TrEMBL record:
It is an enzyme of class 1 (oxidoreductase). GO terms for molecular function: 2,5-dioxovalerate dehydrogenase (NADP+) activity. This is 2,5-dioxovalerate dehydrogenase. Residues 12-467 form the Aldehyde dehydrogenase domain. It catalyses: 2,5-dioxopentanoate + NADP(+) + H2O = 2-oxoglutarate + NADPH + 2 H(+); 2,5-dioxopentanoate + NAD(+) + H2O = 2-oxoglutarate + NADH + 2 H(+). Pfam families: Aldedh. Its EC number is 1.2.1.26. It comes from Sphingomonas piscis. Keywords: Oxidoreductase.
């Protein structure tokens, strides 16, 4: 573990990485944190906060870039360890490393640009009648130390140096990360890259700590610690809601930004099916089986009106899926819950098994495609539960109204995809307002897997896809989760923070009396 500048061997229990492919325990053995380790990490983060939040933009941006470079400098040791622990192939891990590094570098740009501070200045109007207007200035400031829970399914881009850590550090918040026990070796390597950047950037050691937990006590204690002011989490609905409860019951409740579960409905319109049902069917299976289906954006639900087009889609999807190789899943636990989910669907008396992929061995997940009627789907809420892996359910709808009824019945989702031809635009236009209320991202003629790390990305959605549908965990808006506004009224310039001073020393773009003004 890394507790500030110290590298610490945990003493609570034994945590070992497991070869995802074979189940073999990996060296070295890691140990979980004690309550003292937890307390030290939170104390150091609290002590570091004021210094870190007052770092100038260039120092903070360079720090983020140093993390990125240190991760790259880990070279193949990181890639190979991550492949072994996650079972994910080299191209995926190398691609995910590039995404992680790119995310850190993008946030460095955000910090340098300074627009995230949202500086607003309403100059005083002493002669205004009937009442003078005071001098009012505001900016966003970081909330304080943030707890980050690494995700199993993206051991780099959503884990120790993933989007939650990158956006929190960019906001000026120290981070106490809780490693995911599915990839302890990967977590240690990435944690070393961050700790090295803290030191080389001359920052207080408490800016980053990494803890392991041999159970759940440390993770729960982290969320409950009064010095932690926000939580980032990606994982199960049970895990996310458990942490939300702890956070809500604190003396000072704090937000938990949990990304939890989504079945990401894909709606196939008549015109699109008429034009390209077979191509959609093949592309769908590619998305469904990406990363052994362990994407939170996985297309777990297909909606379409019954007819020839849907039948053509189903035939193409079935033929393609039958050839899909089974892939190693992240952990034996995730593999087991996937198999249980698939068995439950296969045994459901209203669900038809359309196709199964090639059978696998050990902890490989066999792809599965099921179908049911909209009537059965609406009658059984269990049918909209996420089956985390390469499994999807097609819902045959008798008409357009039934499609809408199913969408109405869905919980909050991360994404919805519509496959349309121009002839479908009128119906699509009717459905879009409803989709907006249900999801964080709407796609046309694609699938939700493959989240672009960009300024306009929303990787979030109404509960229960995430804990707070107003936020995103990917993209530059992710920084907003770890900021809060402060207003300064009638302060003399000498007392104002640099960001809101008349002189604008950091040359920020600011809102002056409601108008955006670039620094000269
Ligand atoms: N939708 C998604 O983005 C997504 C991503 C990963 C996993 N999942 C779902 O979660 C299941 C399990 O996967 P996972 O291990 O990544 O998720 P998980 O929720 O079990 O664990 C995620 C992290 O949170 C911690 N945690 C979980 N519950 C906790 C609790 N009650 N108290 C303290 N800490 C707790 C774990 O130790 C781990 O570090 C998967 O089968 C899948 O269904 C969903
Ligand atoms: O698993 C959650 C994130 C999915 C993602 O980032 C992607 O689809 O690229």
């Amino acid at each position: 573990m890394f507790i500030g500048a110290r590298a610490v061997q945990g003493t609570q229990g034994e945590i070992r990485g497991i070869s995802a492919a074979t189940g073999e325990k990996l060296d070295p053995a890691f140990g979980g944190a004690t309550k003292d380790d937890l307390d030290d990490s939170c104390r150091l983060a609290d002590e570091a906060f004021d210094t870190y939040r007052n770092t100038d933009p260039e120092t903070r941006a360079a720090f983020l870039e140093a993390i990125a470079q240190n991760i790259l400098d880990l070279g193949d040791e990181l890639v190979e360890r991550c492949m072994t622990e996650s079972g994910l192939p080299r191209p995926r891990i190398e691609g995910e490393r590039g995404r992680t590094v790119g995310q850190l570098r993008l946030f460095a740009q955000v910090v340098r640009a300074g627009r995230y501070l949202d500086v607003r200045i309403d100059p005083a109007m002493p002669d205004r009648q009937p009442l003078p207007r005071p001098d009012l200035r505001s900016r966003m400031i970081p909330v304080g130390p943030v707890a980050v829970f690494g995700a199993s399914n993206f051991p780099l881009a959503f884990s120790v140096a993933g989007g939650d850590t990158a956006s929190a550090l960019a906001a000026g918040c120290p981070v106490v990360a809780k490693a995911h026990s599915a990839h302890p070796g990967t977590s240690e390597l990435v944690g070393s890259a961050i700790q090295k950047a803290v030191a080389s950037s001359g920052l207080p050691e408490g800016v980053f700590s990494l803890l392991f937990d041999s159970g759940r006590e440390i993770g729960q204690g982290l969320v409950a610690d009064h010095r932690i002011k926000a939580v980032g989490f990606t994982g199960s609905r049970g895990g996310g809601t458990a942490l939300m409860k702890i956070a809500a019951e604190r003396k000072e409740p704090i937000p938990v930004y949990a990304e939890m579960s989504s079945i990401n409905p894909v709606i196939l319109f008549e015109g699109a099916l008429k034009e390209r049902a077979e191509a959609i069917g093949k592309a769908f299976v590619g998305s469904l089986t990406l990363g052994a289906g362990q994407f939170c954006t996985n297309p777990g639900l297909i909606l379409a009106e019954e007819g020839e087009g849907l039948n053509t889609f189903l035939s193409a999807a079935a033929e393609t899926l039958k050839e899909a190789a089974a892939s190693t899943m992240l952990t034996p636990g995730i593999h087991q819950s996937y198999c249980q989910g698939v068995e439950a669907l296969a045994g459901h008396n209203q669900v038809e098994t359309v196709a199964r992929g090639k059978a696998g061995e050990n902890f490989q997940g066999q792809a599965a495609l099921f179908a049911t009627s909209s009537e059965a789907f609406l009658a059984d809420p269990h049918l909209q539960e996420e089956v985390f892996g390469s499994s999807s359910l097609v819902v045959r709808c008798p008409d357009r109204d039934a499609v809408r009824d199913v969408v109405e019945a869905l919980e909050g989702q991360l994404t919805a995809a519509i496959h349309i031809a121009e002839s479908d635009y009128p119906q699509a236009k009717e459905l879009l307002p409803l989709l907006e209320k249900k999801v964080g991202r709407i796609l046309v003629n694609g699938f939700g897997t493959g989240v672009e790390v960009a300024h306009a990305m929303v990787h979030g959605g109404p509960y229960p896809s995430t804990a707070d549908g107003r936020s995103t965990s990917v993209g530059t808006m992710a920084i907003d989760r770890f900021l809060r506004p402060v207003s300064y009224q009638d302060l003399p310039d000498a007392l104002l923070p640099d960001d809101v001073k008349d002189s604008n020393p950091h040359k920020l773009e600011r809102l002056m009396d409601g108008k955006a003004v670039l620094a000269d």
